[in-house]
Description:
Blueprint: H1 5-12, H2 20-61, H3 67-90, H4 93-111, H5 114-131, H6 134-144, H7 161-164
Pfam families: Phycobilisome
GO cellular component, one term: phycobilisome
InterPro entries: Globin-like_sf (IPR009050), Phycobilisome_asu/bsu (IPR012128), Phycobilisome_asu/bsu_sf (IPR038719)
Amino acid sequence: MMQSPLEGVFxxxxxxxxxxxxxQVIGQYVASISERMSAYRALRDHEIDLVQRAADExxxxxxxxxxxxxxxxIKYGMLILRQCAMGMLLNDAEYVQKxxxxxxxxxxxxxxxxxxxxxxxxxxxxxxxxxxNAQQVALLEPFLSLVDPVIPAQEEEMLTVAGIF
Length: 165
């Protein structure tokens, strides 16, 4: 079982005093906690508007989307945001892996919603830039990028003359 770097440091403290590099890990976490909390609060406070704008855009881009697929996609999008926000707050990528990524890919594949989720995830990322400041987005992005292998970006289909015939 993998641990976050911070958990590993605390476990080591049971056996001995911490080394300078281990103290540095704690110092970096403590130094950035107020920024992380600010980003978490901003995301929490703007979540409904952000997701609604992304959902509205999704319906414009994919007007034939079924209601059940739309609802499921929005639910997954909100779970992605919440779990990535918590991972960012804890500064723990393993948290996102355990709580989200372990089941998300299979759930999306089960319903064959890859394209819808990829479009919605892109739209959510765009909306984040309108709802959060650059520093907050920068704190959240490493955790959102963990989702990329699960929901790979869909290539835009280009209409070609050869494709018509």
